[in-house]
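Hi all, posting the design record for the shared folder.

TITLE: backbone redesign
STEP: 1 of 1
STRUCTURE INPUT:
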């Protein structure tokens, strides 16, 4: 069974604050649904933006003002150095309210919920995200589904359950290739619906996608749009 570190290293905020920027995951691509919406949006909020690489994927037709937030100061410093006009990057813990930024036409959560090992943390992020959505505007989530048919991930999920973690939460060991250890969570659709409902959001549509993890494994993920 993977060794579970003791407090305070089990705090996800502290883990990601200290994570070297080069190891912050960024393997999830922007989905076509987001690309289309970004071409119409005036303001976009990217929660858990890392080094700001999502901006590089925007189509040239998008002229939206972009605000990215991340708990990791080194990642935000990198994002600011490589930023393009009409972008702003801020150090912020998404589990807390973000003040004085106004409303956004489009909110992106790409690979951030997986970094939060508990439903309480995930719900906090979603509730604060909804505070910044303009009326009848969209929130796009891209993340990982539970892959119980994969022997690798079945072992990880089962070890997490035996260690008292929530179903789908597991400990990702450190390595020279993928960086320091951290907790991750993979989702099932029923729990996603419960989280959206608790945050006051409504599911518009969703689909499965093939995604690549930080360690290079290709597994099943999802794209979800809510309002």
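Okay, here is what came back for every position:
SEQUENCE:
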């Amino acid at each position: 069974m993977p060794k579970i570190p003791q407090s305070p290293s089990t705090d996800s905020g502290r883990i990601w604050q200290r994570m070297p920027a080069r190891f912050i995951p960024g393997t999830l691509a922007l989905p076509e649904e987001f690309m289309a919406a970004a071409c119409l949006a005036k303001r976009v909020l990217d929660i858990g933006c890392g080094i700001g690489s999502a901006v590089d994927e925007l189509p040239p037709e998008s002229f939206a003002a972009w605000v990215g937030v991340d708990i990791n100061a080194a990642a935000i410093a990198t994002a600011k150095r490589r930023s393009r006009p009409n972008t702003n990057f801020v150090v912020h813990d998404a589990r807390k309210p973000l003040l004085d930024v106004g409303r956004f036409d489009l909110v992106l959560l790409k690979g951030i919920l997986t970094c939060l090992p508990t439903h309480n943390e995930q719900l906090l992020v979603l509730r604060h995200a909804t505070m910044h959505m303009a009326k009848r505007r969209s929130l796009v989530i891209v993340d990982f589904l539970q892959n119980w048919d994969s022997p690798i991930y079945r072992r990880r999920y089962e070890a997490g359950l035996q260690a008292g973690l929530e179903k789908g939460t597991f400990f990702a060991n450190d390595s020279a290739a993928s960086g320091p250890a951290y907790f991750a969570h993979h989702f099932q659709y029923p729990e996603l619906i419960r989280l959206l409902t608790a945050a006051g959001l409504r599911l518009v549509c969703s689909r499965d996608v093939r995604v690549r993890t930080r360690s290079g494994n290709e597994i099943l993920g999802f794209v979800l749009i809510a309002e």
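COMMENT: The helical segments are 12-18, 32-38, 73-81, 119-131, 151-162, 189-198.
Let me know if anyone wants the other runs.
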